[in-house]
Write a structure and sequence with these properties.
The complex is a heterodimer.
Chain A: E1 2-3, H1 7-23, E2 31-34, E3 47-55, H2 60-68, E4 76-82, E5 87-93, H3 99-107, E6 110-112, E7 117-119, E8 124-128, E9 131-132
Antiparallel strand pairs in A: 2-4, 3-5, 3-8, 4-5, 6-7, 8-9
Chain B: H1 2-24, H2 37-42, H3 44-50, H4 59-75, H5 78-83, H6 85-100, E1 103-104, E2 112-113, H7 120-126, H8 130-144, H9 154-159, H10 168-183, H11 187-192, H12 194-204, E3 208-212, H13 222-226, H14 249-253, E4 260-264
Classes of the chains: A alpha+beta, B mainly alpha.
């Protein structure tokens, strides 16, 4: 069956749109870190998950480092990062800590395992649960 | 059709340059890597074994790669001829090479081509180089969890505006690749491109193909000389090569109107 040559650019445009559309349909975490030792208040009602939009969180390594900044923050239970979207979903006990404390920890020094050094100004939290962070 | 393809290539190159520049200036958080379908393939092994992406790859890379596979199953390597910015730049540099080095391919009958057009047999063997390149990249990407190809990738070097892991030697490599393209026709795409190697099996069974109608063909071989992938169009009833990018350069130069036509494979003549 003969086809017009114009079908090729049409198929290309459709496939690009399909690819970009498909990318919105699923999300696979770059890094998932659990902090079982960080403890919670024991009240499951105070457990909440907040979405942070973080500048600097752009690959698996930087996501892992961002997660490690929360290791010692009491009340932080789970860190799930989506590096390609610069997004981190952090589950914490609101009776023990709050999003601002988490933000401050994340914007603090980050430990780089390879060099054994602390790196500064690695991350900047831009949004917390969709609300822009004012400085 | 040639103008349409040129517009496509130009728009993609401008879009890639703007995306890369905006990211480099800190105006955007989306790097050009996010739009590279090869990233989806690079993340494949890690996704299967560890259920996580590799380095900076993400859902967009994977989805674009899957969409590209679908496109290739239909329209063969149309991505290479119409979308890939490295392919477009290669073509333009190849055209420059043709102007600089006046030499004919195989015989003296038609337009001059490249300075160093390898003999068909050598060309065919050299195309297999893409396979070890692909395997090495995938292996080390999986092993290290880093996108180790960045510093060598012409797409990333060109459009990241001195992005992460681009060093001075990266520009030297880019220079060698561009010089290679001037001397050897489409050298990067034919002999080194790992994405081209990955797409080849899908392209070989692609549904759309150019069919040559023997009854109207004058055997002028203009199509052979126009093909950037050095496919001998005049020697076949239908172009089955997995290298065909459906660029339609052959149909543009064909003096007979209905000799080279696009058809769907398996659905009649």
């Amino acid at each position: 069956m003969k086809l017009p040559m114009g079908i090729v650019p049409v198929l290309i445009v459709l496939s690009v749109l399909a690819g970009l559309g498909m990318a919105r349909l699923f999300a696979i975490p770059s890094v998932t870190l659990e902090f079982p030792a960080s403890g919670d208040s024991g009240h499951s009602s105070s457990i909440q998950t907040t979405v942070f939009l973080v500048d600097g969180l752009q690959c698996v390594k930087s996501a892992r480092m961002a997660g490690s900044t929360l290791e010692d923050i009491p009340g932080v239970l789970l860190f799930v990062a989506y590096a390609s979207r610069n997004r981190a979903e952090i589950t914490f006990d609101a009776a023990v800590t709050d999003p601002q404390a988490i933000r401050e920890a994340m914007e603090g020094p980050a430990y780089e395992e390879e060099t054994g050094q602390f790196l500064f100004n690695m991350y900047k939290v831009l949004e917390i649960d969709g609300s822009a962070v004012f400085r | 059709m040639k103008r349409c393809r040129l517009i496509f290539q130009f728009v993609i190159i401008v879009a890639a340059a703007v995306t890369g520049f905006r990211f480099a200036m800190g105006w955007s958080r989306t790097s050009i890597e996010a739009y590279c379908p090869f990233g989806g393939l690079e993340a494949g092994l890690s996704l299967i074994t560890e259920r996580q992406f590799t380095c900076a790859t993400g859902e967009r890379n994977l989805a674009l790669f899957l969409a590209l596979v679908l496109l290739t199953l239909l329209a063969r390597k149309a991505f290479c001829g119409w979308v890939c910015p490295v392919g477009a730049i290669s073509e333009w540099f190849a055209a420059l090479g043709r102007k600089v080095f006046q030499r004919t391919r195989w015989d003296d009958r038609l337009a001059p081509l490249h300075a160093l057009e390898p003999p068909r047999r050598v060309d065919r063997i050299m195309r297999w180089l893409r396979l070890p390149v692909l395997i090495i990249i995938l292996y080390f990407t999986f092993k290290t969890g880093e996108l180790i190809f960045r510093g060598y990738d012409p797409y990333y070097i060109l459009f990241s505006f001195h992005g992460h892991e681009v060093r001075m030697w990266s520009y030297a490599i880019l220079g060698v690749i561009l010089l290679g393209v001037i001397l050897f026709p489409m050298a990067w795409c034919r002999y080194l491109c790992p994405l081209g190697a990955a797409l080849w099996p899908f392209s070989a069974v692609g549904r759309l193909r150019l069919v040559r109608h023997e009854e109207t063909c004058t055997h002028c071989r203009a199509c052979d000389h126009a093909c950037p992938q050095a496919i001998v169009v005049s020697g076949t009833r239908e172009v089955r090569s997995g290298e065909c990018t459906l660029c339609f350069d052959c149909t543009e130069v064909c003096p007979e109107d209905k000799t080279l036509v696009l058809e769907v494979r398996g659905l009649g003549r």
